Amino acid sequence: MGYYDLASGAKTVQGGPPAVYTNSLTGTTIDTRGCDTLYCVVNMGTATGDGTMDIKFQEDAASDMNTRNDITSATFTEISTSVHEGVQVGRLNLTGVKRYVRVYGTYGGSGNVLVGVSYVMGVANSADATTADFNLIP
Predict the structure, then answer these.
(1) What letter does residue 34 receive in the DSSP assignment?
(2) What are phi and psi of 2, to 5 degrees?
(3) CATH architecture under which domain 4-125 falls
(4) Is 82 exposed, middle or buried, given 0-12, 13-18 or 19+ CB atoms closer than 10 A?
(5) Where are the domains of the chain?
(6) How does pLDDT run across 97-127, given as a tens digit for each residue?
(7) What span, in angstroms and rounded, lies between the C-alpha atoms of 21 and 49?
(8) pLDDT digits (tens, 9 = 90+) for 30-84
(9) Distance in angstroms (rounded) separating the CA atoms of residues 108 and 22
(10) What is the pTM of this model?
(11) How many CB atoms lie within 10 A of CB 128?
(12) 137 near 60, Cβ under 8 Å?
């Protein structure tokens, strides 16, 4: 993994206001043109009932996301009633990723969960990766 310099040029994008989800979460579609890396911050609020939410990245060549695909291995740790009220931050290398990206989550079980998503995009100082990769940041 290379050194990513957010101070030299970062763009912050709100992924949608925090909301309560009972079925699915569709994040705001963002244009990643000109950026090499994408940080995604997932704020998890209280989960009620007995359920889980799985959040992943999707990509598409068009902003309408009509022919979207999941980005392989770009998933967050499952949110459940036992893992809630926390923040997860992931870094997605955009090399080889289509221009438009969003997060998508599915919720299964009873109850609901409060989730907020924000993105920070930056330009890499070193391009040492040739394919997309995803890392959760502890």
Answers:
(1) T
(2) -85, 180
(3) Sandwich (2.60)
(4) exposed
(5) 4-125
(6) 999 999 999 888 888 888 888 888 887 555 4
(7) 12
(8) 999 888 888 888 888 877 888 888 889 999 999 999 999 999 889 988 877 766 6
(9) 8
(10) 0.79
(11) 11
(12) no
